[in-house]
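User: Could you walk me through two proteins back to back? I'd like the raw sequence and the structure tokens for each, with a short line separating them so I can tell where one ends and the next begins.

Assistant: Of course. Protein one, sequence then structure:
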Amino acid sequence: MRVLHLVSEKTWRGGEQQVAYLIEELRQEGVESFVACRKGSAFHTYCQQQQLPHTALPFANEFDVVTALRVKAYSSQHRIELLHVHSGHAHAISVLSHVLGNKLPIILSRRVDFPVKRNLLSRLKYNYGGVKRVVCVSDKIKEVVSESLRHPELCVTVYSGVDLSRFANSSKTGRLYREFNLSPTAPLIGNISAIAPHKDYYTFVDTAELVLRQHPDAMFFIIGDGPLRQDIEAYVQQKNLQRYIIFTGFRKDIPQLMPELDVMLVTSETEGLGTTILDAFACQVPVVATKAGGIPEIVRDTETGLLAPIKSPAILAEKVHQVLMDSATRNKVIQGASTLLQEFSKRNTALRTLAVYKEVLQKV
């Protein structure tokens, strides 16, 4: 089987990591993966480093005929059997390529839980006949997307997976305490994600302010970078919390940093699934999170973590306090999370995706 993955994003976030995992695992199953990526992007660099067969294209906009024609040519040259597209931009290009004669079946991955836009282009590309499956990373996304499809049966859920071996040797070493010269008894609470609007770091800061009333020695970490960093830094200064909230920027040493946290605090307003939560599970870090998107499908309240409504800093703060003070609750959710995690390996994700490929190709 020969599959062309369309990866149009400039940066490397959770979605790009999922594509990398998928390609890696599909190789073990004998699937040949090819990539059409944005020239100069993080995934372009990844393809070069991993020596993956790829073509680097402009992906200038959703009407980029040049990119669509080059996808068609590359597909023909390498005898591609189906296209797997991994973002909205790539989705549009795949449809345009199909219209221009690249009649391969299209598999679309959907990783965000907000509704499909109501404009004509979005409606057309989601209901385009060449799209044979919409692979959703959570049941919540499947529910949301299905509402916009004439054929909702095309939606299937395939949960994102994580590399369980990535955290096999992870342990608490005091790394963050030493790096930032912190008291060794300070509770460490953090999130590891892009500082983007849907992550709602304003609620993270508001929650930190309330937690500090009960735990004045607590320290909070925002690990990552993103378009709202300056805004969130300004909000922290406005609340005079800069002494307690540390921005680390983008880090590559997540397997070493994650185990340092006493609580993973996720305050997202929308979330497809939340694979960073699975990383926390792997490091036996208890999770307090909002009921956003697909999060409740992995954070099951009082079983694998603690949940609160979105934009509810008071409830989130109380949940954080509970995890810090109640060892029975803490141990219970850590154990439950460790058990659940086994279902979310990157291998399982790849095998379920491969089953979708085979089903589609059998009907072509």
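----
Protein two, same layout:
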Amino acid sequence: MTLTEIGPFRPADLAQVGSGLNRPECVLAAPDGSLYTGDWTVGIARIAPDGTTVPAVEADLIGQGFRPNGIALTAGGDFLFANLGRGGGVWRVGPAGDPRPFATELDGDRVPHANFVLLDGERAWITISARTRAHDHYTADERSGQILLVQDGKVSVAAEGLNWTNELRLSPDGRYLFVNETFACRTTRYVVADDGGLSEPTRIEFSKDTFPDGLAFDSEGALWVTSVITNRLIRVTPDLSWKVLFEDLGPGGSEAIESYARGTLTFDQIARSRGSRVANLSSLAFGGPDLKTIYLGGLGNSAVHSLRSPVAGLPLHHWR
């Protein structure tokens, strides 16, 4: 297959969707034109096709101490959400009713703060960015990230010793699992066994000013990656080469890059990394009737942003 030449995009190409959001870190697009995102005011927000923003669930998740980060939609219309709030773990909640545990215990211990959850048929994958942290800085030396597998009701460790694991995706043929190691500045690809075992890690190394967070595949088998801090959008082709398609880097981002190089990067510096239009791009989702609209979530944004792509995206589990 000949890959379509794409980009570059400019900040002026961005359109805004929805409003009044609080930390829309993870964005999901649905076939009916709705967008969903974790939100630290209403828990999980829905942006209707007309742009109206409303709560997607009745439960008061924030009042109960939850902080939804990554989210997934089940076939029955429930949400799974990775919880960065009190209690950690991954929880399940419907449009009505209270949240209930989905993956909260591992070998008798509590599953810590979870970053992301991905549905894969009857199983699910979860990332733990850092099970323990030795310091308050974000560095290339962090090694306590994990990938968990939920299968047949049991939670197990599929991979560990990773650096700040963020979003993950399965390749279109299901042979590989790709996971972002944000502060190692790389994406790692694993071979997936039939039983869910992960092996043969292959590293896609980005420049040391790229901090990969979100992931999505397009219909040509290329992987799109967002970079926090530097607000980049990168396309990784099946041969694992990559190209920057978009960047919106501000002075705060440049300061954060310098601090990262010194090993002194802090949360406050990351939070100040704002571009001209977006702040800390963290996820992307293909949507729209033709799956050619790219929706972008960002930790520092109050809306979702969008771009038009010449290539359609690969539909996620909830589209099928």
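The mean pLDDT is 96.

Let me know if you want the two compared in more detail.
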